[in-house]
Each structure stands twice: as C-alpha cells, then as structure tokens.
Amino acid sequence: MQRVINSYWNSNQNFLPFFPLQLSSIQFPFVELDDSIEAVANVIGKAAAELDVIKASFELGNLYTSILPEKLRSDNGVFYTPPALTDRLLNAVENAGVDWTSSSVADPACGGGAFLAPIALRIISATDYLSPEEQLKHLEQNLKGYEIDPFSAWLTEVFLQIAVKDVMNLAGRRIKPIVTICDTLSFFSSKDNQRKFDVVIGNPPYGKLTLNKEVRGEYEESLYGHANLYGLFTHLAINLVKPEGIVGYLTPTSFLSGEYFKKLRMFIRKETNPLTIDFVAGRKGVFEDVLQETLLAVYKKKNHLSNEAPVLEISEISTLPNGRLKISSVGRYELSIDTCSPWILPRDIKHAKIVASMSNMKDSLSTYGYKVSTGQLVWNRHKKQLSDKKSKSSFPIIWAEAVSKDGNFELKAEKANHKKWFHFKKGNDFLLTTKSCVLLQRTTSKEQEKRLITTVLPDELFKEYTSAVVENHLNMIIPTVSNPTVNLKTLSTFLNSKVVNDAFRTISGSVAVSAYELESLPLPAPSKLKRLNTLINNNADSDLIEKECTKIYTKTK
Fold it and tell me: Exposed site from 137, 291, 329, 454, fewest CB < 10 Å?
C-alpha cells in the first residue's frame, strides 16, 4: 500500500515539485516485493492521480481496508465514507450554521481523511482573502484529526497535502501534521487534552468492545449493557463541542431504538437538539459489506439557556449510478417526550402516515397480555443431544425455517446442522416449551420484503409431543395472562401484515428483531382488531385481511 501511495504522490509531481513524499514512520518488516506487485502498485497509484483528491482518497482508502485482515476490519468497524455522503454531511453542518472561515473542526476517527481533506478544501475556498502562509496557519490551528491506526493517519496526511498543494507551493512550505495518532477515547479522558471545538464530524468506528473501569466511568452516563464504539464516539463528540457547536456523524441506525442505546438517547436529548437525520436507503454502492442500516445525523449542542423543542428534518438518500445522491424529503417530526424510548421516525415518505398514527397509539404487546422471549436452544451448546432419530426422551426442535413468510407453520429441519430431535436430559427443563405461542423469525434484513415473519406454534403439536424445543433464531411471543385481549392467531396475522412491518421498520435498524423493539412497537387498541378476528375466523382472502390491517393501523381515531 505504501508503494501505491508512493506512485500516487510521484504522479502528482507536476503539482508538488518542491515536496518529496514523507514516508510512513511505521517500521515494517522487510519483505522483498516481486516485480508484478511493484507493477500493480505503480498502475494503481497513477490511475488514482487521474482522479480528484476526494475520489482518490476514497478509492485508495477502500483499497487499504480491503487488504486488512477481515476480523480486524469488522471488529473495529473500519469502513471509509463515500464522497457523496461526505459532501451531504458537510452541507448539512453548513446549513446548521458552521462558518468555515472561523470554525475549529475535529474528526475523532479520521481514517484515511474522508472528511479532513474535503473540509480543508472548503476552508481554503472560504479564506481566499488570506495569504497562503496565513491559510496554512489557519488550517493548522483549526483542523484536527485523531486516529488510532498509524497507517490510516499517514494516509490522511498524504491526502491533506495533495488537497492543499497549491497553497503549499505558494507558501513555499509543507502544511504541518494535522493528525494525532492516539486512542481517541483515552486521549480526551486526560485532563491535559480538554480542547473544545466548534464542529466535530466524521464516520466513527463501530462494534462491541470491553471497557476498562476508567473509560466506562468516563462514559457511564450514556452506557447501558454492552458498549459500542460508535456510541462512545457520539458521547465524546458531544463532549468535545462548545455550547451551540455542531456534531455531524455517519453511524448505524441502531441507536434510535436498541435497548443498549437507551441511555445514549437520553444523553443526546439532554445535551443536544437533533436537527437532521438522513436515512441511507440502501447499502448497494455505499457500504455493501456493512450489515447495519446507516444514517447521517446533525446535532446542535445546547447552551442550557434555551428551551428549543427538538424537531427533526428527515430525508431519505440513495446513491444513483453516477455516484450522486437522490435526496427525498420525508418531513419534519417531533421526538417523543420520553427521552429513552425508541425514536419513531419515518425512513421514507411512505412511512409518514404510519408514524402519525403510531403517535396516537397507547397499547403494546404488554397491554395485550404478552411478553417476548428468545428461543432457548443454542444448538452448538447441545450438539450431542441433537439427532435425526427419535427416542423415548426426544422432543421436536423448532427451527426458524418452520415459520413460512405467509404465516404458516411446518415442522421441518432441512438446513445444514439442523436435526429434527432433541434428546432430553435431566436439568434441561428450561429448554422446553409446553404451550402455544407466536413464533417470529429473529434475524432478518432491511432488503427483505418483511422484517416480521410470524406464525402460531399450534396446540396440536403439544397434543402429539407434550413439549417442543425452540431454537434461538426465533422469538416467542408468549401469553402472560390466561385470556389475552388479542388471541394468538389474530396477533400473528396482524404482525405479519405489510403495514405493521412498515411500522416496525420505523424503529428497527439492525438485522436482529429484538425483544425490546417488539415490546416497544405501538399497537392499536385491542377493540380495533375485532373485525380482523372475524375475517380470520371466516377464512377471508389475504387481500381483504391486508386491507383491514392497513385500515386498523393507519386510522386510529
């Protein structure tokens, strides 16, 4: 990769005649590269030099991350930001009041310079009234990056120098280093590093991690259960900006609704006014290796003297074949008063009417008389007890494939490692399910037609086998009272409908359908489902049932 950058730099020598490439200070083990690798590196570098610096930094950054060990990349959430999304977020913070002529800016996880290089260009353009020397000094004082990976930090410095090459040539000197190589979370925990900025912007890393006592104490106000890197970086960004400063972040959407993020939601609401959220409509051409949905968010730090109500401007954005963005305004929405509850927001214009209805709903699975529990069987912990042969102590295993997308149940085990029977042993009572419930597939993706795929685990199964074992890729919606206000079949049909699936998408952003999100889903009053129950009992056709579900969910008054 260093050879690629060397070729890229040398191909820019028409523009950088006075400045040789400063090589990375990382001590690499000596490896003799063969001629073919040298040739490929040279070709890639020359090709990148034909692009503008923003496009080149993205493509070369992607090349670097693609050759990292896969586990390192996924564990640290290393995915560089496409230029179109960078540009959109920079425009959003500008609209929030950022002035590039005077604002101090930090990217706490600057990666390969996806944000710092474009910001440098905007600052240079906004300060064209200054001399080249003054422009360099202004950048050095007001633009800062922090990065834990020394090689990524070096890439950022290279791309920054390419971005400001004209100013460097006129000033007759190189821009001083902008990036501090450090563990950002620990760096700003130190009392020696308490600088505040007007703007904090970036695409922070994500992924679960274990925290030491000191770091957990530093971020305790926004932590609940498992810590996620991007949640910590969101907390850090809010701490780093001055009162009325701006935070602009590209993150997964899971913080909007996940249980582990409820204290982060409270912290964001306490310390900031969320201004805008852009939902990224698809991963194709954006973050194709990323399982989670993503968004761009802009927050304004409160000065605690104002009482502004948080009204969010929501948009949906998607990437066009030419690399540009299609931007669709969804509208303006107030956040609920309950600061830790999921933020119910429309992902696209189709959801706007549904969200309006949801705001009037007072019921949930709990008030219907149900709770959600994950299937108890973790198959690889009980491998020796799984078999395709039935014995006297066997019970059927219910796998996720038993739930069809049209709401039917079929006892089957057809996928690899899926056995039909569980051989019961003493102490396994906790694995047994003995009563009918609603089964719901626990792992789905945004691209699927439905996120909620349900069926009823039938009574007939228990008459034949007395008990069953439900695998943990299924959620069970279990009655908590003898006579729930909505029966199992009606509940399953309703949850399986398109309109309720659309409603669930407004609060769910991860591939897992969590118990917390299901129990947080607003539902209409049980009385509204009486006609649906009648239609189901009369074996009405699916179109009529779907229309009734839509009517129930979008007309709540």
Answer: 329
